[in-house]
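Lay summary

Proteins are chains of building blocks that fold into shapes. Our project writes down both the chain and a compact code for its shape. Here are two examples, one after the other.
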Amino acid sequence: MAPDIGLASKADPKLLPATRATVLAIVNQKGGVGKTTTAINLGAALAELGHSVLLVDLDPQANSTSGLGLDPDRIRSTIYQLLAGETSVEESMVETTVPHLRLVPSHIDLAGAEIELASLDGRETRLRSALESVPIGVECVIIDCPPSLGLLTLNALTAATSMLVPTQCEYFALEGLRHLLYTHQLVRSRLNPELEIAGILMTQFDARTTLSWDVLEEVRRSHPAHVLKTIIPRNVRISEAPSHGKPVIQYDPTSRGAAAYRALAKELLER
């Protein structure tokens, strides 16, 4: 189901992304498709290329935070305080073990934020307003969205300049993809007319199975302009890396997973 975005009937210039950085929302309402894995590893791959990247963990599960080796319970300022207007991006962000990659961490407290945001003025634009304080020099902001099309994800889409859609190579993913692309059109028409689709990223691809090839072909047939050339393989190193608090390009730089995310970073830069 698409989120309620009836607050604004048409695009308002005040709702456009204000930060100088490119803002990329990684979004899919379905869980387990590789959003957090992509957020961490794409951010790390871009940072490896020398770009200054800020990863915003907008998921109450805080998997991007823990996946980069940080303990959410030991962090004083998180995305929750940022959305509440209690702190700035510069005060919230922390360094990671990856040079040029910084993080605005999350915490389970964020789970109640959607209820609190619902009663506030400008509820869809809290993150966009917060990102106005992104320090000069940050080239790319990557937002790891929760697995839903609720108010947190809507905030991300309103703040973003583009959205990247990881899609697992299974048939259930196709139905969710249709809902998400419909939501993209709603957001463009009412809140953020500059929101582009950076691409549909096929993930957890197993070349040994007919199912993976069939789903890949169907998505390419249905959305030929949006499916990225880079495909993320099912790779054990990608799965192991978060338990060590590292992106896969640090955990095993020569793995197929690391190579795939480096290729993704280069493809997105070219687009």
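And here is the second example, written the same way.
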Amino acid sequence: MSAFRPAEKLLAVIVPFESPAPSIDPLVDLVSEDMTRVNAAILARTGSDVTMIPEVANHLIASGGKRLRPMLTLAMAQLAGYAGDGHIKLSASVEFMHTATLLHDDVVDESEMRRGRMAARMLWGNEASVLVGDFLLGQAFKMMVEVGSLRALDILSSAAAVIAEGEVMQLAAAKNTATTEDEYVAVIRAKTAELFAAACEVGLVIAERPKAEQAACRSFGMNLGVAFQLVDDALDYGGKAPKLGKNVGDDFREGKITLPVVLAFRRGSESERQFWRRTLEQGDHTEGDLEHAVGLMTRHRALEDTVKRARHYGAIAKDALALFPDSPIKSALIETVEFCIGRTH
């Protein structure tokens, strides 16, 4: 009789699997052919006999921005199966609108850097920055008219008005530590997310897709835009200057009330609130104040919760695309949401 031998134990080695970081590359690849045409349109439309106009415009346009907003217009046209070429001019219009708002923003905020380079206002002055921004807006509207879609023109021109309203709302809320979270989200919906929403919606409009699909893409853009701005807000206190393309703490030095400030202010003690009033409302800064501000935000989980809010809006954006069948462009758009939120890592 053979001796009983227990079965040999199998040892399983569990290797932790790290999924690759989300990337914008799939989106870039899928729209690259159209984006080449958009870039050509952008270069053609910045031409002017007034030498300073192309100089100022190209300083910012050629400075390495991701061109996310025009890519979204191209992606949505692709998602909708659009076969014309109106999306090229609309995408260029979207980029011009965005560039114009950056030129204007830097003047209002007295910013010194933009996308890792000197802001245009530092090189050519405030007046030139504002006027070249106006020129780009004019060119954007010319291209919209050339496309011949009254609805697309309505969406983008309405967006231009809403963005301006958002800028004024932000100006009114500047240095006001009593700003609520709801008030702040209303500002960034207008100032930042509206252009994302319009950029996404027009791609479906020119493809003459059903209203439900147009609304879904608008929702995608709006919620992605809010998430994008909230991540920017967190990065201003927790990011690195080369990645940001601006100086860490610019929002703090400019007295901007962003969501991390709103949360830290609400959750802090009275002495901490006095610190925020001194630095943001009165603009009275001493050495070490930025580090102290980051410390308060860390203590009250303000940066962490701002990113959580961004993830919430990102989830809504991704859900909006559930209406569409699976496709490479849909997957790329969903990964783009993850990429925008993952900029915090």
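What can we say about the second shape? Strands lie at 113-114, 117-118.
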